[in-house]
Amino acid sequence: MAVIGVELAGRGYDVHVGHGLLADAGTLAAGFIRKTRVAAVADRNSHAAHGAALETALAASGTGVDWFITEPGEGAKSWGVLETLVDWLLERGIERGDHIFALGGGVVGDLTGFAAAVLKRGCGFVQIPTTLLAQVDSSVGGKTAINTKAGKNLVGAFHQPALVLADTATLGTLPPREMGAGYAEVIKYGILGDADFFAWCEANGAKVTARDPEALEYAVTQSVQAKARIVAQDERETTGTRALLNLGHTFGHALEAETGFSDALLHGEAVALGMVLAARYSARLNYISLDDAARVTAAIDKAGLRSEIASLGLECSGRELAAHMLHDKKMDAGTLPFILLRGIGEAFVDTQVDIADMAAFLSEQLQAH
Ligand code: GLY
Question: Kind of pairing, strands 143-148 and 99-104?
Answer without folding.
Answer: unpaired
